[in-house]
Design a protein that fits this description.
The structure is a single chain. This protein is an alpha+beta fold. The chain has one domain (14-114): Winged helix-like DNA-binding domain superfamily/Winged helix DNA-binding domain (Arc Repressor Mutant, subunit A, Orthogonal Bundle). The chain contains six helices and three strands. It has helices at 15-23, 28-38, 43-49, 55-67, 89-92, 95-114; strands at residues 40-42, 71-76, 82-87. It has a three-stranded antiparallel sheet. A hairpin with a 5-residue loop joins strand 2 (71-76) and strand 3 (82-87). The two termini are 32 Å apart.
Length: 115
């Protein structure tokens, strides 16, 4: 961020603000991480993985990630209904960022214990 002073800075005009608007939410990063690790996931599998999330919150988070072009929702016309989620190309472009966050977390998780 190249600004002469904080008075001129507008957070909403930054890339940082834009990415936050896409991944902000209690479970969105967890969903993206899960899809990175397992490629294709069904709704109930994700619900079991993220045990603390409610069905409504998970459903809303998935809809928002889909509308932002980060994930793909594939619905199969069968009984019972089958819906699978996977990363879209745009979501896959976040993988290096998620991996960097994981590396940072692993490093600092061990060093935090030593403090």
């Amino acid at each position: 961020m190249n600004m002469d002073s904080i008075e001129q800075a507008k957070l909403e005009n930054t890339g940082f603000s834009y990415i936050l608007s896409l991944i902000n939410g209690k479970y969105k990063i967890t969903i993206l991480y899960y899809l990175t690790a397992f490629d294709v996931v069904r709704f109930n599998e994700m619900k079991r993985y993220i045990d603390a999330v409610s069905f409504k919150t998970l459903s809303l988070s998935l809809k928002e990630l889909e509308s932002d072009g980060l994930i793909i929702r594939n619905e199969y016309p069968q009984i019972p209904p089958k819906v699978e989620y996977s990363l879209a190309a745009r979501g896959k472009s976040l993988i290096p960022i998620l991996e960097a966050m994981c590396e940072w977390g692993e490093f600092h998780k061990t060093t935090a214990r030593e403090m």
